[in-house]
Amino acid sequence: MKTEFSKGNGRARQVTFTVPVAGNRKLFVILVTDLSASMSQFGKIESVNYAMAASLRQIEKIAKGKEGIDVEVMVIGFGATADVVQGPESIETIAWKKLVADQPDTLAGPGVDLLNEKLDALMNGKRGLPPVLVLVSDGLARDEIQWRPATARLAASKWGKPAIRVGVGISGVGGDCDLSLLIAFINDPERPPLVAGDAAQLGDFIKWSINSSFNQSIGNNDGAKPQYPNLPSLPFDDDEDEDEDQEED
After folding, report:
1. How many distinct helices (H) and strands (E) make up the chain?
2. In angstroms, rounded to a whole number, what is the distance separating the alpha carbons of residues 66 and 103?
3. 186-226: per-residue pLDDT in tens?
4. Percent helix, strand, coil in the chain (nearest 5)?
5. Domain architecture of the chain: domains with CATH
6. Using an 8 Å Cβ cutoff, are 91 and 56 in contact?
7. Would the CA dihedral through 67, 134, 58, 225 be positive or negative?
8. Taking CA atoms, which of 50, 142, 195, 245 is between 20 and 30 Å from 170?
């Protein structure tokens, strides 16, 4: 409650009214990842697991110093089907669950459709910052007739449009990523996909894209369209993570 005095007809009068208290803003970090069997080869899914576990630790550290922001994480896996494999869960409590790539096909449409559905439900009536959306794939999605309209809906949706969308693929050893899918997911000619040459670089790109996009989102409090992060010139610095791992051992 708040009380103010105003003057009317030459006399002061007391006016009491309720001041609404704004809740925290939501910031969703959502990974949409290919879980087809080819991702289990050449260390690719292991790189995804390591990169995400490291990124979540880094995001948690940053989020602790930011008041008024609630960060939640979700993982959607796709292959022959699509499903939420983790979350949504607060960055403060989430423990990364290792992904398993054993799906017999690569169908991206159901994954993007599920992302659209979850974004609408998660953000319904809430205040939020631009979501961080990362699509990872190593193969050629066979369902363009489905993923093409699904990515178009994402780009036009209330929360998909302002989102920081990143596409990460691998076209080196054991990979042949569908650039057309990644490009459609990003839907911005100034935002090229990140294409890794091997599993190690795939992990670096995922960590970089998650962390830099997160920083972009929390720095965007004026409603302006977030700027796409610059491409990495150096590999992600793992020194801190290695030190933490050694301390845990």
Report:
1. 6, 8
2. 38
3. 999 888 899 888 888 888 889 888 888 888 888 754 444 44
4. 35, 25, 40
5. 23-248 (3.40.50.410)
6. yes
7. negative
8. 245
